[in-house]
Amino acid sequence: MKYTSRLIEEAVEALSLLPSIGKKSALRLVLYLLSQNKDKSDRISKAIHKLSTEIKSCQKCHAYADTTICSICADSRRSKKVICVVESVRDLMAIEETQQYNGTYHILGGLISPLDGRGPDDIHIASLIHRVTEDQADELIMAISPTIEGETTIYYISRLLAESNVRISVISRGVSFAGELEYADELTLGRSIQSRIPYHQKSLSSEV
Questions:
Q1: Which numeric CATH code is attached to 79-198?
Q2: What is the per-residue pLDDT across 34-60, written as a single tens digit (0 to 9) for each?
Q3: What is the rounded distance in angstroms from the CA atom of residue 78 to the CA atom of residue 25?
């Protein structure tokens, strides 16, 4: 594709680095921005710049935050005794959209997957175990996608907490096996949180 401007070409190349954005889509976005007033373009560029320079990771739950502690962990109205364990920030946001949960979260940042070379030390399991003690948690809700990797991760965490008094539950299977939480509709996901069931350890074909 030929461009009349090197600056346009550079902008297209940059935008096409985003997922699901090809060169043609990137060009449409660039031309749209050029047709708008400067204030709109400046607002977008400033917001993106702040994402890369000012965003932080919450020291408690590992969610994205504006300060060292995210707004959910800092909210005194939310129960610190119940921790919802999720794989990613996207899963946290999906559950928040249901408006059916009022505890806190813990983001693992991935799942145990030996085939991908990702073990327990590669995700935020150690900090979760620390939080259970620190916050004197009564319950962990394992809101993890019901895949083989998800089941392996839940089993591993439950083994580490086997001697503790914390109750471990999993969301009810309104979410289909091997389904991703972020794609579940709000009603189904909300009911799955509300209708969570106790987790019982079961043997896996391979040890982690």
A1: 3.40.1360.10
A2: 999 999 999 999 999 999 999 999 999
A3: 41
Per domain, the residue ranges of the chain are: 6-53, 79-198
Q: Is the pTM of this model over 0.90?
A: no
Indicate the SS3 state at residue 86.
strand
pLDDT digit string, tens, across residues 3-16: 889 999 999 999 99
Contacts of residue 106, Cβ cutoff 8 Å, sequence gap at least 6: 61, 62, 83, 84, 85, 86, 124, 127, 128, 131
Mean pLDDT over each residue of the chain, to the nearest integer: 87
CA distance 60 to 44: 30
- Whether 93 and 181 have beta carbons less than 8 Å apart is answered as no
Fold of domain 6-53? Helicase, Ruva Protein; domain 3 (1.10.8)
Could you tell me the two tokens for 31? 């031309």
